[in-house]
Amino acid sequence: MALKVEIKPRERIIVGNAVITNDGNRARLIVEGDAPILREKDILRPDDADTPCKKIYLLVQMMYLAEDPRIHHDLYFQLIKDMQTAAPSTMLQIDRINDQILTGFYYKALKEAKALIAYERELLDNAKCL
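The chain above was modelled as a monomer; its predicted structure follows.
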């Protein structure tokens, strides 16, 4: 089944290993095949991965875009282990991410990793209030 993607002016998306930039007008693309696709709003750059959960998201993103996602598994599972030690309350979100990764659903794992980042933000905000 084809995926329809609407791109705003100057928005970028990743399709496979190519970055596509829309120049000036709104565009609609129809993508057929199994290439990974990420909209600009879902792309995390390495320089922006400035918290443990953002680093986890970045690794899941790299797995999603990689031809062989397993090359990132060792580092990912080390970060997960460190995160669970530092913040055991993240276990539920991490289990959801792991379930998606272990079944090969990396895009769904990205969505779960976004929820983990939101939870991390909540934890950090609560810590500032103390």
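The chain has two domains: 3-40, 44-129.
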